[in-house]
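Sequence in, structure out. Go.
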Amino acid sequence: MNNKTNRFENLTFDDFRKLATDPKLSRHEKVGFPDSYREGKEDDIFQDICGKLTNLSLPGKKVLEIGPGCSELPVMLAQLCERNGGQLIFVDSDEMLTFLPQAGHITKYAGTFPAALGNDLGNWVGKTDAILAYSVIQYIFTEGNLWSFVDHCLSLLADSGEILFGDVPNITMRKRFFASAAGEAVHRDYTGSDKKPEVIFNQLESGQMDDSVVLGILARARAQGFHAWVMPQAKTLPMANRREDILIRKP
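Output:
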């Protein structure tokens, strides 16, 4: 893995603030991805999101995106909500929010969720139709309180409301892939070497999300009366072989 890729590992909220203000970085790099991972792929990613978070296609819905960053994905979401007459909240740093559109149907809160909403948080409890946090919860897992984050998201859902924790990296899923023939082929193409990738199961992976965390989120949501599923990403997505999505729905 090259140094330019390494710079996007183990990022924190403050690191993303710094990336956002770096004029040398592309919009993909500002949100923590090399251009090769996202360039030309955002339409496919957004279609995959909309296929799972189905309330986004309905009129007049209240939508919250946590950690939208500054790529084209939140712009696409803003345009969709405008067409459908919906309300949209963005929660991210000031540095990221500066890049996102200003419009009457959009409200921006600078900071981390849920603290950034302050006293306004109560206005959305039990009234939110769709929550999107795409490639976000891994940073909550390492830097914040994952269970408090999940619980606050659950508390906001209206009846039939949906949450998509999208693009979740899962170290166990990654190991399963690279232990397969398909994974070995990808590794050969990437490294130019016939050496097989080193895969070690049943090993402590500090700071990494794994099957136990992903399934734990499902168990917590289900125990509180919500439906919850792990869903694969579309095969056209750049990281579909090692990332997956979590969909939660209030009955």
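Check: The CA atoms of residues 10 and 108 lie 26 Å apart. The domain at 3-168+209-249 is CATH 3.40.50.150 (Rossmann fold).
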